[in-house]
Amino acid sequence: ILAARAAALGKCDLLTSMVYEFAELQGVMGYHYALNDGENVEVALALNEQYLPRFSGDTLPTSKTGMILAIAERLDTITGLFGIGQPPTGSKDPFALRRAALGILRIIIENQLPLDLVACVTAATSNYLVLSKSAGLEKVVLDFIFERLRSLYADQGVSSDVFLSVDSVRPANPLEFDARVRAVSSFVRMPQALNLAAANKRVSNILQKAAFVDSSVVQSELLIEPAEQTLATTLLAVQIRVGPLLKTNQFADALAAMAALQPPVDAFFEQVMVNVDDQAVRNNRLALLQQLRQLFLGIADISLLQNV
Questions:
Q1: How many C-beta atoms surround the C-beta of residue 9 within 10 A?
Q2: Which residues are CB-neighbours of 36 under 8 A, at least 6 positions away?
Q3: Can you tell me the distance from the alpha carbon of 35 to that of 46, in angstroms, rounded to the nearest whole number?
């Protein structure tokens, strides 16, 4: 109710002579006018906070209503302008859409909001009856917003490979995206990281070449070599341990547990031939590798961490 009221009053102060003469007072005057008219204090505060952050490093909205209004206003602007074919081009960004996207991400991540951005963008685009560039609009807008995270993390010293590894699986919630980035950033400092990244790359290539899509369980009776038996046993133990951690977004602890897979994975590739003539054995080994791959993809595509 408060957010709806704040949205209804959001731009009213733009019609006043005060803001007409002093444009920098937009929002500030809205706050004072709303208080003077007896509006709820949080509604009044949101009228000013909708413009936060105004620039890089600026403060963020502190009230829930202000956060809602600030995110909604920016999403409406971005989807609307993309929808009529007016996205930023090169260095030109006349409507400050890049800044708006960064503002959305900062509000969500720094205020720890468990917000599904895919659902938010879908809701924003559905508010328009006609958009000339509506085909695939949601994906274009989401790509644009999430791409802003690359520069945000670069400023924090996070490598591009770490960002890309998470973006390749792209969780809908920017807060969860951030948690995964932090976890992968810690993981790459572990001694097992490089070998596991290379192994995931190799597994990805094997599965692609084999065009393997069968996600059936691994059949223990078809595990012949000791190295594949050890990998299967270790993988099952790690899956059991990691499952609850993933459900609670404890990605750093999950990746630390997955590091235990490095010795058996290395031994598997040293001692086991995947593409054997026996189709049942081959498919069983591919299923084992697919389970390994899917476990890591539950957090990020670590095969992209070759240059960290």
A1: 19
A2: none
A3: 11
Cβ contact 275:202 at 8 Å: no
Identity at 221, one-letter amino acid code: E
Closest C-alpha among 236, 293, 233 to residue 267:
233
Strand partners, 89: 92
Is 36 exposed, middle or buried, given 0-12, 13-18 or 19+ CB atoms closer than 10 A?
exposed
CA gap 252, 78 in Å, rounded: 33
Measured CA distances, 265 to 9, 133, 299 (Å) = 60, 47, 18
- Alpha helices (runs of H) in 211-261, residue ranges in sequence order: 226-247, 251-258
pTM for this prediction: 0.91
Per residue in 6-47, pLDDT (tens digit) is: 999 999 999 999 999 999 999 999 999 999 999 999 999 999
